[in-house]
């Protein structure tokens, strides 16, 4: 599992783990039924506390992305397509809100933002 931890971005480490594992699930890089590394192994690989990996796995379980079984480990849970779509829409809305806020502070108008979105969609 490829997880990169940054100590300089201000985001708590457990959130970085949650975010990166969720992204790997949402992009189908890891599939339903795939086993995640044990909390101890992941903690050892990332050189962090087991408590941090435990918190990340608990968060992923709470959000319905993984399921854990005592003595067996943690596995990627089958995702409901409608739930995934809702998750994506929620993330898109949050990111667009950040963009709108940044544009407002910078004095950039909505038509300029829309032009940027259109050019990004075209792959320009």
UniProtKB/TrEMBL annotation:
<feature type="domain" description="HTH gntR-type">
    <location>
        <begin position="11"/>
        <end position="79"/>
    </location>
</feature>
<protein>
    <submittedName>
        <fullName>GntR family transcriptional regulator</fullName>
    </submittedName>
</protein>
<dbReference type="GO" id="GO:0003700">
    <property type="term" value="F:DNA-binding transcription factor activity"/>
</dbReference>
<feature type="coiled-coil region">
    <location>
        <begin position="43"/>
        <end position="98"/>
    </location>
</feature>
<dbReference type="InterPro" id="IPR036388">
    <property type="entry name" value="WH-like_DNA-bd_sf"/>
</dbReference>
<keyword id="KW-0238">DNA-binding</keyword>
<keyword id="KW-0175">Coiled coil</keyword>
<dbReference type="InterPro" id="IPR000524">
    <property type="entry name" value="Tscrpt_reg_HTH_GntR"/>
</dbReference>
<dbReference type="GO" id="GO:0003677">
    <property type="term" value="F:DNA binding"/>
</dbReference>
<keyword id="KW-0804">Transcription</keyword>
<keyword id="KW-0805">Transcription regulation</keyword>
<dbReference type="Pfam" id="PF00392">
    <property type="entry name" value="GntR"/>
</dbReference>
<dbReference type="InterPro" id="IPR036390">
    <property type="entry name" value="WH_DNA-bd_sf"/>
</dbReference>
């Amino acid at each position: 599992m490829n997880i990169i931890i940054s100590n300089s971005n201000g985001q708590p480490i457990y959130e970085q783990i949650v975010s990166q594992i969720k992204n790997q699930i949402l992009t189908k890089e890891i599939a339903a039924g795939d086993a995640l590394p044990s909390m101890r192994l992941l903690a050892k690989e990332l050189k962090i506390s087991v408590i941090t990996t435990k918190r990340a796995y608990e968060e992923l379980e709470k959000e319905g992305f993984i399921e854990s079984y005592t003595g067996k480990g943690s596995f990627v849970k089958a995702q409901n397509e409608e739930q995934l779509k809702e998750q994506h829409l929620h993330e898109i809305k949050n990111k667009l809100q950040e963009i709108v806020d940044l544009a407002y502070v910078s004095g950039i108008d909505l038509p300029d933002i829309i032009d940027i979105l259109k050019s990004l969609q075209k792959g320009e």
